[in-house]
Specification:
Glutaredoxin, 2 domains, five-stranded mixed β-sheet, binds glutathione
Length: 205
């Protein structure tokens, strides 16, 4: 009995992540929040977990990210994981009486209007991608309009920023000409120590 209790206590929270994908946002947010966790890499094509096992046993949806708590419970979806981090790190959450709702509003917007257009864009043959590319750029433009004071919620970096950052960074890699100030925003966020650490841990340049 004593042994079983000790084993359970020694488990650590795990973030299942695929290098460079949107799980990078959760990775950055957890590092910014200074929450202890182990990074577990997932092969997004084969759904194999580094070190063995099928990722679909962890998240039957097959998507990264997933956050596995010490008791074995698993939380999925960027919106839910980033909101969970913000609840534990108020310095990474928008303030004010509607702060939590404003965060969910922003995370849902990023997930549904920007993030979810990328799988569609990438699945289309090159010749007929233009309309989806324009829609992505339109919504990046909306987000860019929020960055006047540096971040999505003004002068404070919140958990919504690594989500927008990862998508803008990925879009730039795909050759999208992003509306300003997203170029500056990417360059500035890239310099944050937590972002540098996440890039290093994910093996990104
Ligand atoms: N609704 C999920 C979607 C996550 C998602 O699209 N993850 C991509 C990487 S960015 C993925 O794991 N794709 C694997 C696949 O399509 O098989 C969320 O927002 O967390």
């Amino acid at each position: 009995m004593q042994i079983a209790i000790n084993i359970r206590r020694s488990r650590s929270m795990k973030l299942y992540s695929a290098p460079g994908f949107t799980s990078l946002a959760d990775h950055i947010a957890l590092l910014e929040a200074e929450l202890p966790f182990k990074l577990v890499k997932v092969d997004i094509e084969t759904k194999q977990i580094e070190g063995g096992g099928s990722y679909t046993d962890i998240n039957p949806k097959g998507y990264v990210p997933a956050l596995e708590f010490n008791d074995g419970e698993v939380l999925t979806e960027n919106v839910a994981i980033l909101a969970w981090v913000a609840d534990r790190a108020p310095q990474l959450a928008p303030q004010g009486h509607l702060g939590r709702e404003r965060l969910l509003e922003m995370l849902s917007f990023i997930a549904t209007e920007i993030h979810k257009r990328f799988p569609t864009y990438l699945s289309l043959p090159e010749g007929i991608r233009e309309q989806t590319a324009q829609e992505i750029l339109h919504w990046f433009g909306f987000a860019a309009g929020r960055l006047e004071r540096g971040y999505l919620f003004g002068e404070t970096f919140t958990v919504a920023d690594p989500y927008l950052f990862q998508l803008a960074w990925g879009a730039a890699q795909l050759g999208f000409r992003l509306p300003e100030p997203l170029g500056d925003y990417i360059a500035r966020i890239e310099q944050r120590p937590a972002v540098q650490a996440a890039f290093h841990r994910e093996g990104l340049a």
